[in-house]
Predict the structure.
Amino acid sequence: MSGVLPDLSIRQLEYLVAVNEAPNWATAAERVGVSPSALSQGLSELERRVGVPLFDRDGRRRVFRPAAAEVLAHARQVVALTIDLASWAERSRTGVSGQLRVGMIDAAAVGHYPDVIAGFRERYPTVEFRLQVAPSGDLLDDLVSGTLDLVLCVEPAEPRRGIRMERVMEEELAIITRGEAVPRDPKRWGPWVLFADGSHTREVIERALIELGAPVNVVTESNQPEVLRAMVALGEGWTVLPKVQAGVGLRVGRVIAERNLVLARRDGAAVDPVAEMFAAAVLA
C-alpha cells in the first residue's frame, strides 16, 4: 500500500551516521558500542527496510552509493533531534544543569558577546558551557550533526536543511590598510589578503568589490583575522574585516558591505531551557 512508512529504528540510523563519520568500520562499531558484525547486520536491515541499496562493494570495503546521501541526511537530523529530546528530558528531571555546546565565529565570541558568555557562566555555574570557535560553514555542519546546540554565525547565502535562523545583528565590513588612505577610484584598490575562498564572508566581500569595480587580486588567504591583520601590517596588501576586528595600529577605511549574523538552532528540536536562556541573553 502506498504511503506506508518504513519501520526504521533510530539505532540503525545512528549506525549509518557513525559509518559515515568514522575512518573505518571497526571504529564506527566502537563508537556506537556494538561489534562490527552487529553493525553490518543493522545496516543490512536498514537497507532492507528503506528498500534502496545504500552501499557498493569495493573489495572487502563497503562504500556509500550516491542514493545514500538522502538517507544519510535524514539520519543525521533524526539522531540529532533524538539527542535533543534526551537532553531536554534530563534537564526537566534535574533542573538547570547539564551541558550547553555553543558555536560562534571569532567576531561574535571575542568582539560582540564576551560579556554574554562570561555572564552566563557566572549565573549558571552548574551548566557545563562549551564554546567552539570556527568558521560559519563548519559550525552549521556541527549543528546539523548534533555536535552543537546553538550557533552564532554569518547568515549563509542559501537556507540549510534542518536549521532555523534568527537574525541578531548587522556587521559593517570595512577596508583595513597599513595606514594609507583608500583612493576614491576602486580600480586602484588592493591587492588583498582575505578570508579563505568558500567562506560566507569572503563571498560577501568579493561580491561588494566586484559591484564597486575593484579588482579582486587576492595574494593571501586565511580564516584567522589576526593573520590577515599581520599580513596587512607587513605590507602584503589590504583586507576587509568587521570593524570590531580591525585591531590596533591599522587604518579603518571605507565600509564596503554588511553581513548578517544569525542565531541558528536545529529545526523541530525539543525546547532546551538552558539553550533558550543563552539565546535570550544574546538577543537582548
